[in-house]
């Protein structure tokens, strides 16, 4: 019997409220990383982390992502889940899912979510090309831009799914705080 395939998560379910989010684009060679502002409006690139051959909880790539999550005081981590245009998952999705599970164990209780990332690398490369950046030799920049695309998509969907004051982690703003 085959194991059940986990699909992408949706923003709004168990939303942790206001705070920075970190997104990662897991590749076979590099991991692109992006973060949001505390209000969850804008995603920006952070860095590109080299993938490690090690696969344990102390692997250098996992340790670096843990450090970034801590440094940015992230309330949620979004991992891109690569799927085909038909919504099917292949080898890359398995790699991303396995990485997300390892990361979840390492950053608990911070939630790690999977987000549909169809065409994010293609979109990121096109956007960089249109802004005058040559793709040749710029793979690390493309990986960061793909993480930005993943996170911005999550933030945009979250803004439609969660209204201010609705999420379990939001605290009401009093007039004196404005």
Automatic annotation (TrEMBL):
Residues 50-59 have a biased composition (Basic and acidic residues). Keywords: Cytoplasm, Hydrolase, Nuclease, Ribosome biogenesis. Its main location: cytoplasm. The keyword Transferase does not apply. Its EC number is 3.1.-.-. Could be a nuclease involved in processing of the 5'-end of pre-16S rRNA. This is Putative pre-16S rRNA nuclease.
